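Ticket closed. Logging final result for Metallo-beta-lactamase domain-containing protein.
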Amino acid sequence: MSVEVCAKDAEYPEYRKIFWGKRDAFKAEPLGKAIRSRTETWEPIFTPGHAKDHMVYLNHNNGVLFSGDLFVTQKQSLSYGKSRSR
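Final structure:
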């Protein structure tokens, strides 16, 4: 699914373009059963949710899991294109 999306210029709302810029098409490779770094092996795991193609990456050797796209803290902060009065 994501490989096909990457093959086309991204279409997303204007506010995202302001923060992230324009994303041109590029050639992506499909995920295999494992991703290997210099010292570790990571298992890609399909975890659809707010994104239909969301993935997490699990290292079985040390229990580390890379997941999500939101860093959760005690107090969340949001970014807006223009200042907002409170």
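Residues 31-69 form one domain. No further action required.
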